[in-house]
Design goal:
The chain has about 180 residues and is of the alpha+beta class. It is built from 4 helices and 13 strands. It has a 7-stranded antiparallel beta sheet. A hairpin with a 4-residue loop joins strand 2 and strand 3. The structure holds flavin mononucleotide. The site of flavin mononucleotide (FMN) has 25 residues, from strand 3, strand 5, helix 2 and helix 3.
Length: about 180
Amino acid sequence: MTRDLAKAVKRCSKPETVALLVVRDKARDRSNIMPIGWKMWTSGQPRLVAFSVSLDHYSCDLLLAEDECTLAWPGKDMLPGVLRCGSVSGLNTDKFELTGWRLAPAVLVGSGLIEGCIVNLECRVKDRLETGDHMLFVCSLLEGHVLDGDTRVLFTLHDEAIFNHAGQGKGYKFGTFT
Ligand SMILES: Cc1cc2nc3c(=O)[nH]c(=O)nc-3n(C[C@H](O)[C@H](O)[C@H](O)COP(=O)(O)O)c2cc1C
Protein backbone atom coordinates (compact mmCIF):
# COMPACT_ATOMS: atom_id res chain seq x y z
CA MET A 1 0.00 0.00 0.00
CA THR A 2 1.37 3.43 -0.98
CA ARG A 3 0.62 6.65 0.92
CA ASP A 4 -0.41 9.04 -1.91
CA LEU A 5 -3.57 11.15 -1.67
CA ALA A 6 -3.62 12.41 -5.30
CA LYS A 7 -3.11 8.89 -6.66
CA ALA A 8 -5.78 7.43 -4.36
CA VAL A 9 -8.40 10.02 -5.42
CA LYS A 10 -7.58 9.49 -9.09
CA ARG A 11 -7.82 5.69 -8.80
CA CYS A 12 -11.40 5.80 -7.48
CA SER A 13 -12.67 8.65 -9.71
CA LYS A 14 -13.47 6.63 -12.84
CA PRO A 15 -15.62 5.57 -14.48
CA GLU A 16 -17.45 8.89 -14.10
CA THR A 17 -20.93 9.37 -15.53
CA VAL A 18 -21.04 12.81 -17.08
CA ALA A 19 -23.99 15.18 -17.42
CA LEU A 20 -24.22 18.46 -19.34
CA LEU A 21 -25.05 21.58 -17.38
CA VAL A 22 -27.04 24.05 -19.48
CA VAL A 23 -27.50 27.62 -18.23
CA ARG A 24 -29.15 30.58 -19.92
CA ASP A 25 -26.81 33.40 -20.93
CA LYS A 26 -29.21 36.34 -21.15
CA ALA A 27 -26.55 38.86 -22.19
CA ARG A 28 -25.65 36.80 -25.26
CA ASP A 29 -29.17 35.49 -25.85
CA ARG A 30 -28.12 31.85 -25.89
CA SER A 31 -27.61 28.91 -23.55
CA ASN A 32 -24.20 27.63 -22.50
CA ILE A 33 -23.17 23.99 -22.04
CA MET A 34 -20.59 22.58 -19.66
CA PRO A 35 -19.89 18.86 -18.98
CA ILE A 36 -20.09 18.00 -15.29
CA GLY A 37 -18.79 14.87 -13.66
CA TRP A 38 -18.85 15.95 -10.01
CA LYS A 39 -22.52 15.45 -9.21
CA MET A 40 -24.75 13.30 -7.02
CA TRP A 41 -28.37 12.70 -6.06
CA THR A 42 -28.71 14.10 -2.57
CA SER A 43 -32.39 13.62 -1.63
CA GLY A 44 -35.26 11.50 -2.89
CA GLN A 45 -38.10 13.40 -1.22
CA PRO A 46 -37.90 16.17 -2.26
CA ARG A 47 -35.85 15.25 -5.30
CA LEU A 48 -32.51 17.07 -5.11
CA VAL A 49 -29.27 16.88 -7.07
CA ALA A 50 -25.93 18.48 -6.15
CA PHE A 51 -22.98 19.32 -8.37
CA SER A 52 -19.73 21.24 -8.15
CA VAL A 53 -18.71 23.96 -10.61
CA SER A 54 -15.27 25.57 -10.62
CA LEU A 55 -15.34 29.22 -9.57
CA ASP A 56 -13.29 29.94 -12.72
CA HIS A 57 -15.93 28.61 -15.13
CA TYR A 58 -18.26 30.89 -17.02
CA SER A 59 -21.13 28.53 -16.11
CA CYS A 60 -20.58 29.36 -12.44
CA ASP A 61 -21.17 33.09 -13.06
CA LEU A 62 -24.20 32.31 -15.20
CA LEU A 63 -25.76 29.99 -12.65
CA LEU A 64 -25.16 32.43 -9.78
CA ALA A 65 -27.13 34.98 -11.83
CA GLU A 66 -29.89 32.72 -13.16
CA ASP A 67 -30.61 30.25 -10.33
CA GLU A 68 -32.04 27.73 -12.80
CA CYS A 69 -30.53 25.24 -15.22
CA THR A 70 -30.90 21.96 -17.06
CA LEU A 71 -28.92 18.77 -16.50
CA ALA A 72 -28.86 16.75 -19.70
CA TRP A 73 -27.52 13.20 -19.92
CA PRO A 74 -25.71 12.47 -23.19
CA GLY A 75 -25.22 9.08 -24.80
CA LYS A 76 -21.80 7.52 -25.27
CA ASP A 77 -22.05 8.45 -28.97
CA MET A 78 -21.88 12.15 -28.02
CA LEU A 79 -18.24 11.95 -26.81
CA PRO A 80 -16.72 14.41 -29.34
CA GLY A 81 -19.27 17.12 -28.48
CA VAL A 82 -18.91 16.56 -24.75
CA LEU A 83 -15.13 16.96 -24.90
CA ARG A 84 -15.45 20.04 -27.12
CA CYS A 85 -17.84 21.68 -24.64
CA GLY A 86 -15.43 20.81 -21.84
CA SER A 87 -12.41 22.36 -23.56
CA VAL A 88 -13.55 25.96 -24.16
CA SER A 89 -15.30 28.70 -22.24
CA GLY A 90 -18.79 29.77 -23.24
CA LEU A 91 -17.73 33.37 -22.72
CA ASN A 92 -16.54 33.57 -26.32
CA THR A 93 -18.02 30.42 -27.86
CA ASP A 94 -21.56 29.40 -28.73
CA LYS A 95 -21.37 25.72 -27.77
CA PHE A 96 -24.53 24.81 -29.69
CA GLU A 97 -22.81 26.08 -32.85
CA LEU A 98 -19.62 24.29 -31.79
CA THR A 99 -21.31 20.90 -31.41
CA GLY A 100 -24.17 21.17 -33.87
CA TRP A 101 -26.55 20.16 -31.06
CA ARG A 102 -29.96 21.82 -30.96
CA LEU A 103 -31.73 23.57 -28.10
CA ALA A 104 -35.40 22.74 -27.49
CA PRO A 105 -37.70 24.72 -25.21
CA ALA A 106 -38.06 23.56 -21.60
CA VAL A 107 -41.32 23.79 -19.65
CA LEU A 108 -40.25 25.65 -16.50
CA VAL A 109 -36.71 26.97 -17.03
CA GLY A 110 -35.15 29.33 -19.56
CA SER A 111 -32.04 27.22 -20.15
CA GLY A 112 -33.86 24.81 -22.50
CA LEU A 113 -33.23 21.15 -23.32
CA ILE A 114 -30.51 19.53 -25.43
CA GLU A 115 -32.18 17.59 -28.23
CA GLY A 116 -30.75 14.11 -28.60
CA CYS A 117 -29.80 13.71 -24.94
CA ILE A 118 -31.25 10.62 -23.29
CA VAL A 119 -32.59 12.58 -20.31
CA ASN A 120 -33.08 16.31 -19.60
CA LEU A 121 -33.86 17.48 -16.06
CA GLU A 122 -35.15 21.00 -15.37
CA CYS A 123 -33.63 22.30 -12.13
CA ARG A 124 -33.86 25.28 -9.77
CA VAL A 125 -31.03 26.22 -7.40
CA LYS A 126 -32.09 25.65 -3.79
CA ASP A 127 -28.80 26.10 -1.93
CA ARG A 128 -25.17 26.73 -2.66
CA LEU A 129 -21.93 26.48 -0.76
CA GLU A 130 -18.43 27.57 -1.72
CA THR A 131 -16.18 24.53 -1.31
CA GLY A 132 -12.56 25.50 -1.94
CA ASP A 133 -12.11 26.26 -5.64
CA HIS A 134 -15.65 25.09 -6.57
CA MET A 135 -19.22 26.17 -5.86
CA LEU A 136 -21.53 23.36 -4.77
CA PHE A 137 -25.04 23.91 -6.10
CA VAL A 138 -27.98 21.96 -4.67
CA CYS A 139 -30.92 21.97 -7.07
CA SER A 140 -34.57 20.90 -6.91
CA LEU A 141 -35.70 18.75 -9.82
CA LEU A 142 -38.72 20.47 -11.37
CA GLU A 143 -39.41 18.43 -14.50
CA GLY A 144 -37.89 15.52 -16.40
CA HIS A 145 -37.82 14.54 -20.09
CA VAL A 146 -36.73 11.13 -21.31
CA LEU A 147 -36.34 9.79 -24.84
CA ASP A 148 -38.69 6.81 -25.03
CA GLY A 149 -37.15 3.61 -26.30
CA ASP A 150 -33.61 5.06 -26.29
CA THR A 151 -31.34 2.20 -25.24
CA ARG A 152 -28.04 4.05 -25.63
CA VAL A 153 -25.56 3.76 -22.76
CA LEU A 154 -25.10 6.98 -20.75
CA PHE A 155 -21.86 8.82 -21.45
CA THR A 156 -19.19 7.65 -19.02
CA LEU A 157 -15.68 9.00 -18.93
CA HIS A 158 -13.14 6.17 -18.99
CA ASP A 159 -9.39 6.32 -19.46
CA GLU A 160 -9.71 5.81 -23.21
CA ALA A 161 -11.27 9.27 -23.48
CA ILE A 162 -7.80 10.64 -22.55
CA PHE A 163 -9.53 13.47 -20.74
CA ASN A 164 -8.45 13.58 -17.14
CA HIS A 165 -8.58 15.78 -14.11
CA ALA A 166 -5.15 17.40 -13.96
CA GLY A 167 -5.39 18.21 -10.23
CA GLN A 168 -3.79 21.20 -8.47
CA GLY A 169 -6.59 23.49 -9.62
CA LYS A 170 -5.91 22.84 -13.31
CA GLY A 171 -9.28 21.18 -13.99
CA TYR A 172 -9.96 18.63 -16.75
CA LYS A 173 -7.47 18.52 -19.62
CA PHE A 174 -6.46 16.23 -22.45
CA GLY A 175 -3.56 13.98 -21.48
CA THR A 176 -2.50 11.90 -18.51
CA PHE A 177 -1.31 13.39 -15.25
CA THR A 178 0.51 11.82 -12.32
C1 LIG B 1 -15.99 14.87 -18.89
C2 LIG B 1 -15.84 16.20 -18.21
C3 LIG B 1 -16.26 16.38 -16.90
C4 LIG B 1 -16.12 17.62 -16.27
N1 LIG B 1 -16.57 17.79 -14.99
C5 LIG B 1 -16.48 19.01 -14.39
C6 LIG B 1 -17.04 19.22 -13.10
O1 LIG B 1 -17.62 18.34 -12.48
N2 LIG B 1 -16.92 20.47 -12.56
C7 LIG B 1 -16.30 21.49 -13.21
O2 LIG B 1 -16.23 22.60 -12.66
N3 LIG B 1 -15.77 21.31 -14.45
C8 LIG B 1 -15.87 20.10 -15.05
N4 LIG B 1 -15.38 19.91 -16.31
C9 LIG B 1 -14.68 21.03 -16.97
C10 LIG B 1 -15.63 22.02 -17.62
O3 LIG B 1 -16.69 21.37 -18.27
C11 LIG B 1 -14.87 22.87 -18.67
O4 LIG B 1 -13.83 23.57 -18.04
C12 LIG B 1 -15.75 23.80 -19.45
O5 LIG B 1 -15.01 24.27 -20.56
C13 LIG B 1 -16.29 24.98 -18.67
O6 LIG B 1 -17.11 25.70 -19.54
P1 LIG B 1 -17.62 27.19 -19.25
O7 LIG B 1 -16.38 28.02 -18.97
O8 LIG B 1 -18.32 27.60 -20.52
O9 LIG B 1 -18.51 27.13 -18.08
C14 LIG B 1 -15.52 18.69 -16.96
C15 LIG B 1 -15.13 18.52 -18.29
C16 LIG B 1 -15.30 17.29 -18.91
C17 LIG B 1 -14.92 17.14 -20.34
